[in-house]
Request: fold
Amino acid sequence: FRDAKEEYTLRINNFLMQYIKNNIYDTNKVNLIVDIARHSKNDIFEEILLYYISLNQNVEQFKMISWRGNFTTSIGDGNLGDIEAADWRKILSIVDKSNIGFKLIPIKRYLNERIESCLEYAESERKRKFLGYF
Reply:
């Protein structure tokens, strides 16, 4: 998908969307598509996320998708908690674009909890660095 010719882009995007639709309750298969979107087809990530939540608002299944990936890396003095919080904020901002309404409250609550958790971790990282505990 990464080096596909431009004339195949629409066909690839349609395939990915159809694959999600056909496998909406199979989190392993949805994770595969999300991983492709994050690494090879970043231009369609937002569309995939919005399409997924339009078809499935189950928060427990949403939690099983690796929307931001599994790992966080940082160069230098980057704060991993802040980086993860920014990723979750970006995901929340995409979810906020949906017109589904109140059905998304559990997913938005989950995303806000993830953001808060990451911010708490970021603060503890700052304290550790300040006190010299690496």
Remarks:
- The radius of gyration is 17 Å.
- Residues 102 and 108 are 10 Å apart (CA to CA).
- DSSP finds six helices and no strands in the chain.
- The chain has a mean pLDDT of 90.
